[in-house]
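REVIEWER CHECKLIST
Item 1: Sequence provided? yes
Item 2: Single chain? yes
Item 3: Sequence as submitted:
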Amino acid sequence: MQQEVLVLPDEGDDVRVIACVGEFDQDTLGPFRQAGNPAVADPAVRRIVLDVSRLTFADSSMLNEMLRLLRSGRLVLAGPIPPSLQRVFELTGAGSLFPTAVSVEAACTL
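Item 4: Structure as written out by the authors:
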């Protein structure tokens, strides 16, 4: 499975943007977790924007990691939400838990 996690330069001092590209499951989740941990631990980060628009596959382990970031109270998803993630949301009913914006730019302003 191919995947890439990009941590973009902080927007101002308080918004961390993490972009996930490709396929994410329990075997490939490490880079995403490694990008999320510092964002959750940094009290100066007011908002964590997760760009999911280029996900091609996500399973329940990806959802679990997203829920961990959500518990920080600072996560916003930037879409559009891809079909594979939308399917996970439909199967679990978790989609309504996540604040979602149509783009990274819109998510940064929430």
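Item 5: Key structural point noted by reviewer: Helices lie at 30-41, 60-70, 83-92, 104-108.
Item 6: Recommendation: ____
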